[in-house]
Amino acid sequence: MGRPINLDDLVSKRVVDALNAGVSLVGAASAARISRASLMEWLARGRTGEQPFANFLDRVTEARGKAERKVVDALMIKIREGNVPACIFWLQQRAPDEWNQKAPTSNDTAVATDNAAETDLPLLESLVAAAKSKVGT
Predict the structure, then answer these.
(1) Are residues 62 and 14 in the same domain?
(2) Helix (H, G, I), strand (E, B), or coil: what is residue 22?
(3) Within 10 A of 9 (CB to CB), how many other CB atoms are there?
(4) Is 52 inside a domain boundary?
(5) Range of the domain at 120
(6) pTM of the entire structure?
(7) How far is CA 51 from CA 44, 60, 92, in A?
(8) Most buried of 16, 71, 105, 126, CB within 10 angstroms?
(9) Could you give the CA distance from residue 86 to residue 94 in angstroms, rounded to a whole number?
């Protein structure tokens, strides 16, 4: 078993800087040269109010919030520009039950096929009629 790593100012700064840049918790631990387990333990200890871990937890929470805000701001710019994939992404994240695509069931597929045949029949008839008139038959 390796020696325990203590939470110090340098390690804390490395974690917080990485999180501010948008890195995941695992990536932040790697950037700070600590194990994921150490980081998770420190955050858990911070949730109990133990110092200095509670202050560290506050800094981590703030950094993650800032990074998220940067991404949301960039996404909203794309949405205001009319970027359809950005709009769909936002809707799917905000209301997944309403906007995420669901895999069709076999019953859905059968209904869709029946409806497609009914809808396409007049179109097919008009295309055949147009083709006949061009050929002159």
Answers:
(1) yes
(2) coil
(3) 8
(4) yes
(5) 106-137
(6) 0.66
(7) 11, 14, 39
(8) 16
(9) 12
pLDDT tens profile 29-62: 999 999 999 999 999 999 999 999 999 999 999 9
Structure tokens at 115: 């409806």
54 within domain boundaries: yes
CA-only gyration radius of the chain, Å? 28
Residue 23 Cα to chain centre, angstroms: 14
Of 18, 47, 71, the last residue of a domain is 71
The answer to whether position 90 is within a domain reads: no
Residue position matching structure tokens 């869709």: 112
Within a domain: residue 36? yes
Return the pLDDT at 105: 65
Are residues 16 and 67 part of one domain? Answer: yes
Is the pLDDT at 73 greater than 60, yes or no? Answer: yes
**Domains in the chain, number:** 2
Q: Pseudo-torsion of CA 116, 118, 119, 120, nearest 10°?
A: 80
